Amino acid sequence: MPVIELQQIEKSYGPVQALKGLSLTVPRGCLYGLLGPNGAGKTTTIRILATLLEPDAGSVKVAGLDALREPRAVRCELGYVAQEVAIDKILTGREMLQLQGDLYHLRPAERDARIADLIDRLGMESWLDRRCGTYSGGMRRRLDLASGLLHKPQLLVLDEPTVGLDIESRSVIWELLRELRLQGTTVLLSSHYLEEVEALADRMAIIDDGRVIAEGTPDQLKQRLGGDRVTLRVREFSNEAEAEQVRQLLEPVDGVRQVVVNRAQGFSLNLVVDGEQVLSRLREQLDAAQLPVFALAQSRPSLDDVYLQATGRTLMDAELAVVGQRDAKQERKSSMR
Amino acid sequence: MTSPVATIPSRATEQGPLADLAQETLALTRRLFLQLVRRPSTLIAGILQPLIWLLLFGALFSNAPEGLLPGGMGYGRFLGAGVIVFTAFSGALNAGLPLMFDREFGFLNRLLVAPLRSRRSIVFASVIYITSLSLLQSLAIIGTSALIGYGWPSAAGLALVMLTLLLLVFAFTALSLGLAFALPGHIELIAVIFVANLPLLFASTALAPLSFMPIWLSWLASLNPLTFAIEPIRAAYAGPLDLGGVMLEAPYGAVSGYQCLSVLFLLAVGLFLLISPLLNRKLA
Fold this sequence. Notes:
The complex is a heterodimer. Chain A is an alpha/beta fold. Chain A has helices at 42-49, 71-77, 93-103, 108-122, 137-149, 167-182, 194-200, 218-225, 240-250, 277-288, 303-311, 315-322, 328-334; strands spanning 4-13, 16-26, 31-35, 57-62, 65-66, 78-81, 155-159, 186-191, 203-208, 211-216, 228-233, 256-262, 268-273, 295-299. In chain A, the strands form three sheets. Chain A has a six-stranded mixed β-sheet with strand order 6-7-8-3-9-10, sandwiched between helices. In chain A, strands 2-1-4-5 form a four-stranded antiparallel β-sheet, with helices on one face. The mean pLDDT of chain A is 87. Chain B has one domain. Mean pLDDT of chain B is 88; it is low at 1-12.
């Protein structure tokens, strides 16, 4: 039985429709990635899962429980690591964890044993008894992860857990997430970093404009897209005429699906081909025409290609498009009770 | 909590709902007190301000002609009751501030993600905290005013002082918590506190008896909840306690000690009932 079942979720903030019929199913024991640009609806989805927000329409099931009817039962099963870490600066990390443990009704002995265990796993011993106000971003995020895990939830939900973190904190968090998955905890994380989802997730969904536009394992998504990517440069800096000439030469080659001249990259050529064997055919063709080869590289399609295919723009472009469009004040207000 | 799937490590063994409620309320209260101990400036300012009132304002009228005040009371002793009430009142009026900051900084969301037995525990913790704090500040003022010679109530009188303050603190804590949820931010809350504070003091019998006031002000003062707290406390300081006796000669008639306390009780209950729908909505 899936741990998360979202069906046709709709949610608007005033005139802005954040989720437009989003559906998502996350199987048990899975490390699931939600990939999408800023403003795609990832945080709204996660806040609905965490019972902080009620959708305007749709059904939300977490661990088999109806989150709209039994939110308290859902809260017991779920650990939530928010994007903006709200901590009490004047308390120490340990006091924050004790507070959290009491809010989840752990017995003091059990609570303190859990805290000791998490100190160990997250490398917090040297600073946990300092006040939270002195923590770096990485320490805060680790503390927040510890609070999310304190009550041993069967589902851990993280909203962009490694944004802006130092490398060490990022690797500690990645390591812990992998370990949790091995121990049977279901993990859902949102990210707008391709490499994070690629490195961690068993399954993933790409979210864009309030909907899921692709779903599967990262490999499936890439295979579904099909073909390999080839980048070819006949010279380090070619010109348009030459690039066009090469394009016309290579387009008829068997196994070449598409040739695009990339002006931004010094008139290099980007090809989509059917497999490795096409590469040697390309070389033969270029040799016959007595053209030099400065660089010829082949790669599997990336998740960015998947995103590009589904939306017609790269993830980076999508990020840039929403910069300045979001109203931080409005968003903060809507998250305030 | 029973979960339909039992594959994952089980949760804490169940304890009763009351034990849960006590645990979460205690933890939230503990947090507020830790904040107070590590940032004691609120507590210190809350004691210093009324002390300055007591010393300076008390001295202001020390050479006033004898028999100016009803019952031949010295001005310092007269003022004492007013300052004690003002201290508790200001403390309670600030009750909503920590909650407002939690709303604004998102800490409240952290609390709301937890499976609290009742989200009212967030309100309970605030009430426990602010009540203890206000009573502590008032006790400091009671002690000081005794030291500078303004008198000390009898044991029964002290019990009456505490009961009166408790009712007053409950009422204004409810008001402040309601405002903390109703207003958009701490700037607005502080503005309301600022505007409410002094006028309520001046339009009461804290600084002068009703007989000194023009009729319109004496009407205001005898409708002001602070007056209903000040008069029983003043009576507790004045001598033998008689709650049935007249404590306030209001323009609309005589008010007894029992009536003063009843008004405060009804006000506290009424204000909690008034903010209840708001709390339900915001904490739903």
